[in-house]
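tool_log.txt
---
The assistant was asked to compare two proteins side by side. It first ran the structure predictor on the initial sequence, then on the second. Raw inputs and outputs are pasted verbatim so the downstream comparison step can read them without reformatting.
(1)
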Amino acid sequence: MSIYERIESLIKSKAMTKKEFCKELGISTGNLGDWKRGKSSPGTNKLIDIAAYFDVSLDWLMTGREREAVQVHEEREAYAADEPDWIRLSSRLTEREKAFIQEYLEFTEYRRKLKRMGGK
């Protein structure tokens, strides 16, 4: 199932029209048609908006799969006290992984703002 097909199924699940969906999220019907035909894909910010609107994960919207919860049990090694773990770990990431984490952090902040404003 493509991103467009997942978006279409979400629209149907809310019993709304594609026109209503486009109006709600500020998407032109032409762009939606381009997504359907595979001429273009929604940008990152639009995917974040769509995921937040339908209260689904960005992972599911992009891939059709939820990220599996992984339980990690490990003994903590002795690290330099002045270097938090996340800094040490982030230095090992690829640029693509860093970009994904950045998008996720922005998505999380966006959802927090929505909740504070009385949204989902």
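(2)
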Amino acid sequence: MSHDTNRRDPSAPSEEPETSDRRGLEQTVARRSVLAGVSGLVAGSAMVGSASASDHGNDVALPEMEGPIDGGSQTGNPQTAAVHDVESYGYTEEEYFFSGTARSDTYFGTFGGLADEDEYQTRAIVYRPEDEADFNGHLLADWSNVSTGIDMPVTWINAYEYLMREGYAVAVVSAQAVGVDTSSPIGDLGSGEGENLVAWDPERYGDLEHPGDDYALDIFSQVVEGLRTGGADDSSLGSTGSSDDSDPLAGLDVEYVLATGQSQSAGYMASLITDVQEEYGNIDGYLPAASAVTDYRDDLVPVLWLNTEDEAEGLFGDIGGGDPPDDSGQFRLWEVAGASHVNYWLSSWNAAMIARDFGGEDAEWDETAAGDFGTLEDGEYGDCGGNYFPARYAYSAALEALRTWVEDDTEPDDAPRIEREDGSVVTDEHGNVHGGVRLPSIEVPVAEYDARSCDLEGQTMPFDDDTLEELYESNDEYVAQFEDAVDDAVESGYLLGKDADDLLERAQDAELIDDSDGYWWQ
């Protein structure tokens, strides 16, 4: 059975995974996450109307754009460049610099008052289809997460397969000072130096400057505007200023802009939604991820908030938690059962990138191993070995739901919430949570997906042979149940066709139960 409804079918080569740095990376991410305790504390729905990129009229400034950038004293490529092969998808990867004068956040919305202004120069890594005919009209702007002290994408990593096979343009935007030119107060990758762009490669990035995170909202908005317009002064959308002749999207006609950010970056998404959207309106939909949400605007543009199980009880016990909000207006919340704040796919990708950019090693990236959900003989399971639940499929499905919502006004159905009792999530006899957005890996499980231990990493505890045989009796029965769960998830919109085929193939290859003696019905 094929569930493939997607456009592109790349065949990128697989390599052996880089494992020596992975655990350290996971622990680093877990220790250093600067989680937005106020990331969900945005203004309530006090105003009526819709502010979208097609009907706003305020003055977001156009930045100067320079690129593509090359050279440098490190790898000769952008820091945090892709470790996967983008060329096999028919894509290019280029880095551009953006500069201008940014307003401080006091200019926007509920902050009120006049704004300070300061100069900045930052960067974005831009991915686009080489063939204009493959472009779907959507630009995804991913606000880099700097919780580890360096500039890391998150949504791009979790959803790159979907984004490229569907023809998006993607910009990974360095919006915060820690990623650009400011030493992290949170920690380091081991050396204590050389994490931000300027320190890492002054030959390539020495001209970058960031006035501080009070200016981050406007910097991100200006980068989006430069990408959306190609640098042209678009008075119909209110953009002002000028740009040079550099067009990072090479003339692609951007019809819609989606913005995304995870964890502390989701806090900035909340501020963009609440305080910037009515002023600038150059973003058409938002995907904040993995962060507390307690109040929200549901009257501006579509917002699909994608949370993991980790956020259901509150992060570190005091950020978020409580009863989740209901879906309403242009707001939807997905709580992905089994998923942790930091998943194994994400941490494996980051480990390969860190080995290359900070260790001088080859970036070895194996999608087969990184995409495992607890079925491999040599998986790093057990105590704090990482959460193998395949949350990336939910990222792809959420982006597709947001795309169709923005493009066709097709609202997603209300999503079920993770079950809670007295502030704690409710689990079954195997330790897996009840309720929430459910993918086949938790509907037909082969492991306990503990999303809430080991700080933000979680862990995976594969079932023993007796439990597997009690649940499924044979591999054929396991696959049959898994296929039914795949069909249900596709029908619900939580799993896309191409991802369904990939996930089902992994289940078929698992061979979890010893059928060597056979059964009378085989």
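---
observation on (2): The chain has two domains: 53-283, 299-304+324-522. The two ends are 21 Å apart (CA to CA).
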